[in-house]
Every structure is written in C-alpha cells, then in structure tokens.
Amino acid sequence: MSIKPRRQREILRLIGTGSMRTQDQLSTALAAKGIQVSQGTLSRDLRELGVAKAADGYSLPARRRSVAPTQRSLGRVAAQFMLEIRTAQNMVVLRTAPGGANALAQRLDAAAWHEVVGTIAGDDTIFIATADSVMAERVRQRLMAL
Question: What is the residue-wise DSSP string for 35-56?
Fold first, then answer.
C-alpha cells in the first residue's frame, strides 16, 4: 500500500478523536505514528478528504463518518469492471474490462485491506501484492464476495 492511503486514513482517525485543532498538532500526531508530512501535503490531504476547519478544530465531513461508503464504492466498481481473479503465489491477478483497472485499484487502495501490500494497475489488469499465498487467497475470496 502506498503511503498516501495510510496517511489519509490516519488523518481521518486522528480528526475523528476530536482533539486536532491545528495542522501543527495533526503533523505532530502523524509523526508520532511514523508518518512524516510536509505542510503542503497535509493541506492537500485535508482538502481531498473534505475535512472542515472550525473555531474548535477540524471535523470530519458527513460522508467520512462511516467506513461503509468505501466498501460500497469498492463493491460497485468491482461489479462494474471485474472479470477474472487468479492467484499466483503471493499475487492476485485481477482482469477487468478495458479501462477499469485504475478505478478498481484506487477503490481497493482506499479500502486499505490489511492483506494487501500494494497494487499496480494497467488498463485491464491489476497486480495485487500480498505477504504470502495465504493472504493472496484471502484477498481472492474477499474480491469474489463483492
């Protein structure tokens, strides 16, 4: 998994605690989690996530208060584009309709499944890396269930 989804997930978690009042506090809290971030990157992340800034600190947008929308979005995109799923040792190879791989890989990255180490998307193929063959099979089963 790339650092951006992890960083943004952590930002949402920290803001969800209700104790983040400034970007400095948020940056310090992220650093304590081992995530170094520049002020510019943090500003972009907050904007992309739709985080609101009020007098009493940051707050989550209504659409981000629940984890379910990410999973529903992944399910919709998978139903629309996914054609075939195969495992090859610690990899899951996902075939999609032409042009669908990137959209599906983005939703999968946003879902932040703990089994997924990272994804690479082409036009109609996604390579999903996992730690081992057991995790690859678990990802295949989760994808089949969508």
Answer: ----HHHHHHHHHHHT-EEETT
